[in-house]
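**User:** Everyone, produce a chain:

**Assistant:**
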Amino acid sequence: MFRAIADVLRQIGGAIATVVTLPFRALARLFGGASASGGRGARRA
C-alpha cells in the first residue's frame, strides 16, 4: 500500500520536474543557438 503511494508521488514529482525544467531547457537552447550563431544580427549595428 505505501509502496503504491510512494510510486504515485514519485511519478507526480518526476512530471512536475519535467514541466518545470522544460522552459529552462528551451531558454538554454535558444541562448546557446544565439551565441553560437554570433548573436543573430545583434552585431550588425
